[in-house]
Amino acid sequence: MSKVTIQDIANMCQVSKSSVSRYLNGGYVSKENKEKIKNAIEQTGYKTNFFAKRLKSKNSNLIGVVIPRIDSITVGKVLNGINSVCEENEYTILMESSNLSLKKELECINSLYNQGVDGIIVYTIGITNEHINFVNSVKTPILFLNQKNNNVSYISIDDYKAGYIMAEYFYKNNHKNIVFLGVNEQDKSVGLERKKGFYDFYKKNVSNYKIDFLETDFSFKKAYNMGKMVTNLNPTAVICATDNICLGLMLYLKEKGIEVPDQISVAGFGGYEVSSVVKPSITTISFDYELLGKLSAEDILNIIKNKNRKENITIPLNFIIGESVKNIN
Amino acid sequence: MSKVTIQDIANMCQVSKSSVSRYLNGGYVSKENKEKIKNAIEQTGYKTNFFAKRLKSKNSNLIGVVIPRIDSITVGKVLNGINSVCEENEYTILMESSNLSLKKELECINSLYNQGVDGIIVYTIGITNEHINFVNSVKTPILFLNQKNNNVSYISIDDYKAGYIMAEYFYKNNHKNIVFLGVNEQDKSVGLERKKGFYDFYKKNVSNYKIDFLETDFSFKKAYNMGKMVTNLNPTAVICATDNICLGLMLYLKEKGIEVPDQISVAGFGGYEVSSVVKPSITTISFDYELLGKLSAEDILNIIKNKNRKENITIPLNFIIGESVKNIN
DNA sequence: CTGTTAGCGCTTTCAA
DNA sequence: TTGAAAGCGCTAACAG
């Protein structure tokens, strides 16, 4: 089937393989020959051999993508964005998952590099010195998502700013007794930055306030189970590190008959679909993950082609005011 | 960086490239030379050129995967399963998305084929004659997920059986006035098979009953909006094509003060995490999508290596009895 | 515009 | 055990 080569069709047309190659790559071929070659290709169903082609032309039209895990809506959206851009540009994605292991992430980068991809996009869980060393030791462009680090190229979401804005909103609604229901700081963006932004606003702008931190994980269930600890602290408002956490908490509150937002205000981050359809709808800050994916693909393609790059980018935020936060005056 | 070739290290060691190649591929090399070559490789950081290698040895260690869309938990789980097996066997995934377009699905298969993958796994949205023709015209093994069709190799979930079992359970709980809140039949597994199984049980085993069909889509929101139409039909129980649909419906019922399962029973399919944590927890049938992914990867690898294949497989079901269905006696 | 000529880096007979 | 030699299928000067 795929054993028709450029030589075969050259023979059929009584031309040299160079001409066929030229035809294939848009070089000079006489109208006459063009026609002949075209027909021969159609008849034989000739397909250019990917590997032979790549062996010569030094680029593979492959983009390596390292993701932290695959069964996540967020990651899915990012991949979607990357995919759409790659498709347009006839690049194919080579994907590997780090399974949230830092060591594995490095291995994936290396593996992708060895497979000759033209560029690598890493949805990182943390940028270490090893990462930086690797980036500096190879000429393959590598772009990081999800964490800022000025030693490498990155595109990131401004989690810090998101936290900051949310704090501002909480303050405007007169909340000064708050619980921050967050996740472990090992997760730089969700665990660290969002929290830091939130705290910083209060630190800088508010005099008497109280923010209690409670740690949960990303699951709905755990958040639900944290409900009692949250209410024990008697906050007027709870800021949750993700919408999913917020949803879990809300279920607990509902079951306890605690009204949101009348008795307690809540908010999240993420802008998930369900957040808007739930009652009350959740006040949240949404991130355009698909855009993140798109921009990163465009960016790496740009680096591959032009070798130059604009500055590190940060994706804009989208504040969504729902019904879950009340002004307590 | 990666410009060290087999020739370079051959020169360094004063042996021929053949010897180096043999060393790399486990052929005969003297102990002495082995040592020398090993050192040279380590020192230079030599990496075998993927494309040159593939050009000769007819296999690429690449598995093509076509998915319908990427931002879906279900797809994510399947990919996870595929990924874990591929990793163990040192295969890399080449992924393309059909974006739920049948035409695009065919294009993806073709594209992957042209890129020289050793096998293709297609998470299909529908197997057409074109699919079958393509499969028969190439020697690259192609495996389909998510739909049964005896003209091709497939691994599938037994949606029909799931529907049948659920119907049996509904009947045991004395429901004979039912609404089936499903999706369009274009989706063979969720739209067609689950429904068919459900209806067939009643057709075969029950004499006086009524099942009204209502069509929605996969979204939480739409299901929520369908609530009124559902209740207008006054069923004693509602079977939803997915847990997500069930969740949407439940929100509507809750807001209307209609008690589940006291006033109306509901159930779904899928076994999502949230389904169990919600109140009341949802009676559902869960599918092990990760297993589906794993088995399919194992299967295609097996076909690639042995060229023979066991029978088409169907993934087992897991019935989860929650609190959302009541025996109305 | 076209054919000839070299390879790209690796594997694989075939003799030695 | 080893090396020489012949390609895998394609691209890219170069001279016509």
Largest interface: A-B, 48 and 48 residues
Q: What would CATH call the class of the largest domain in chain A?
A: Alpha Beta
- The CATH homologous superfamily of the largest domain in chain A corresponds to Response regulator
How many structural domains of chain A?
3
Widest sheet: strand ordering of chain A: 2-1-3-4-5-11
Oligomer: homodimer
What is the architecture of the largest domain in chain A at the second tier of CATH?
A: 3-Layer(aba) Sandwich
Radius of gyration of chain A: 26 Å
Q: Provide the structure class of chain A.
A: alpha/beta
Number of helices of chain A: 14
What helical percentage do the residues of chain A reach?
Answer: 40-55%
- Label the overall shape of chain A: elongated
Helix and strand sequence of chain A: HHHHEHEHEHEEHEHEHHEHEHEHEE
Secondary structure: number of strands of chain A: 12
Biggest beta sheet summary of chain A: 6 strands, parallel
End-to-end C-alpha gap of chain A: 75 Å
Low-confidence stretches of chain A: none
Percentage of β-strand residues of chain A = 15-25%
Question: What's the short version?
Answer:
Chain A is of the alpha/beta class and 329 residues long. Chain A folds into three domains: 1-58, Orthogonal Bundle (434 Repressor (Amino-terminal Domain)), CATH 1.10.260; 60-157 and 288-314, Rossmann fold, CATH 3.40.50; 159-287, Response regulator (Rossmann fold). Chain A is 47% helix and 18% strand.
Please describe the topology of this protein.
The structure is a homodimer of 329-residue chains.
Chain A: H1 6-13, H2 17-25, H3 31-44, H4 50-56, E1 62-67, H5 73-88, E2 92-97, H6 102-114, E3 119-123, H7 129-137, E4 142-145, E5 153-157, H8 159-172, E6 177-182, H9 188-205, E7 210-215, H10 220-225, H11 227-232, E8 237-240, H12 243-255, E9 265-270, H13 273-277, E10 283-287, H14 289-306, E11 313-315, E12 317-320
Parallel strand pairs in A: 1-2, 1-3, 3-4, 4-5, 5-11, 6-7, 6-8, 8-9, 9-10
Antiparallel strand pairs in A: 10-12
Helix pairs in contact in A: 1-2, 1-3, 5-14, 8-9
The structure holds a DNA duplex (16 and 16 nucleotides).
